[in-house]
Structure formats: C-alpha cells, structure tokens
Amino acid sequence: MLPKAVIKIIDEQKNESVGKEISEEEAKSLMRKQGLNESYIEKAFTPAEKKLESLGVAKNTTFYEFHTNIGYIPIGQGEELHSLDEIIDEKESQFHEDDYPGIYDRFLQLSSIEGEGSYFYELSTGIVYDTDWGEENSMMDGTLKKKWVNFYDFLEWYYSADN
Fold it and tell me: Is there a contact between 145 and 60 (Cβ–Cβ < 8 Å)?
C-alpha cells in the first residue's frame, strides 16, 4: 500500500497523459532520429519490474510498488529524489565504493550527494537514512540513527502537506 499523497500523484499523472499514443517501435524510431544511442533507448524501455529485480528490491515492498506505479517522481519537501534509472546509474558508477566497500550491495542512493547529504534505502530492512557527507560508515555499521523505519514512512513525510 502506498500513502494517500502518493496515490493522488499517480492518479494525477494518469490524468495528465497528453497526445497520441504510439507503439514502442515508433517511439524507438523517433528516439533514434533524435540521435539517442541504442543502450539509452533499451534502458528507457526496460520495464521497472526488471530494473528493480536487478537492484535486488523485493516485490512485496513499498519501494517496489512506488517505482512500478509512478511515472515521474515529483519533488516533495526534501531533496529531489532520483528516478529509478538515476538510482541504477548511481549504483553502476560505484562513486562511494572506494571509501565504503560494499555500500551498493546493501543500499540504494535515493538522492544526489551534491547538497552534502543524501537519502539511502537499505535493501534488507527497508530503512531510509538521511546521511550527511561522511556518515556513510556509521550508516553501514548500524550506528547512524535511522530517520524513517521504512520507505512508506519516508514517502509519507516526503509528500506530506503538513510539513
């Protein structure tokens, strides 16, 4: 189950569908004409379910449900969240791996580190951490205080109109 605020966003996205529907092959052809490379095009058409599976996200999680139902990720009250493709790119970049070996085996980075902090989702527990630069060791060894006990609570906070 997703928070009501997220369900509202999903419904709004469905209602905002504009324009003529075209087939996947027509869309790919248009993308090629725009000069996009084949790997980008294939990635764009890989189903979210397959991407989540490759990341090790369990099907029965709010994280999985959110990313299989949301078209684009609108900004909430915190840092701008990465799209699913950006999460994959972050993992593939291995940016933190030299300083924090194994971080990408356990965590998915949900936002950019550019603001001196980032949200991280722990795959095995669903806990979401709000880390400042340099707190990754504490997060990995379990001494960093968790900000949200699960992704559902994180979404409730992120899209809350009350804050």
Answer: no
Task: For residue 30, tell me if it sits in a domain.
Answer: no
Amino acid letter, residue 122? E
106 CB burial (10 A radius; 0-12, 13-18, 19+): middle
Question: Residue 154 belongs to a domain with what CATH number?
Answer: 3.40.1580.10
Tally the domains of the chain: 1
C-beta atoms surrounding 84 within 10 Å: 20
pLDDT tens-digit profile of 107-156? 999 998 776 789 999 999 999 999 998 899 999 999 999 999 999 999 99
Q: Give the span between the Cα atoms of 57 and 122, in whole angstroms.
A: 10
71 within domain boundaries: yes
Does 153 map to a domain? Answer: yes
